Amino acid sequence: FLGTTLPVYRLRVQSTNRMSYPQIPLIDSDIVAYRSACTVPDEEPESYALHNAKLLMQKITDQFDRGLEQRGFLTGSGNYREKIATIQPYKGNRKDVPKPKYLQAVREYLVYAWGAEIVDGREADDALGCMQYAAKDKSMSQAIDCPSTWPARAI
């Protein structure tokens, strides 16, 4: 489960005069948090889930230049889609599904150890889209890629 493909987007921005800027790894940290927490049984220690998160984040950041700033986003409270969903509740099919025991601990780890930003009123992937759009507004071109193949194992 930890070794499966994980969507991480590389935002490579270039000015219109062809000067190259470094790639900025944009990470949907919600996926890292869920994958790290849900693979650890409740009877196991929290440290296992935190270690999973560390391994996944290292796999992501190892694909980029050392010292490069990454931007990770976690979904916060509220979501505008809840207000506009009229036929069915937004993600209503998930309301009875329990969240992993260590999810909150992993989220906190991602914030404090990896600088993940909590975004309220929208989802983490919406924040990724906003970052990509912001590059467009600064008269920069961008290339976004999501690796289709990742190492077979996260360990």
Description:
It contains five helices and five strands. It starts with 7 loop residues before the first strand and ends in a 10-residue tail after the last strand. The protein has 155 residues and is α/β, with parallel strands linked by helices. The protein has a five-stranded mixed beta sheet with strand order 4-3-2-1-5. β1 and β2 form a beta hairpin. The model is unreliable at 1-5, 11-19 and 139-155 (pLDDT under 50). The radius of gyration is 17 Å and the shape is flat.
Write the layout of secondary structure elements.
Blueprint: E1 8-15, E2 20-28, H1 29-38, H2 46-61, E3 71-79, H3 80-84, H4 103-114, E4 117-121, H5 124-137, E5 140-145
Parallel strand pairs: 2-3, 3-4
Antiparallel strand pairs: 1-2, 1-5
Portion of residues within helices: 25-40%
Rg over CA atoms, rounded to whole Å, is 17 Å
The shape, in one word, is flat
Q: Characterize the biggest β-sheet.
A: 5 strands, mixed
**Mean pLDDT, as a whole number?**
74
Alpha carbon gap, first and last residue: 11 Å
Total strands: the figure is 5
Beta-strand portion reads 15-25%
Order of helices and strands: EEHHEHHEHE
List the strand order in the largest sheet.
4-3-2-1-5
Uncertain stretches of 5 or more adjacent residues: 1-5, 11-19, 139-155
The DSSP helix count reads: 5
Secondary-structure-derived class: alpha/beta
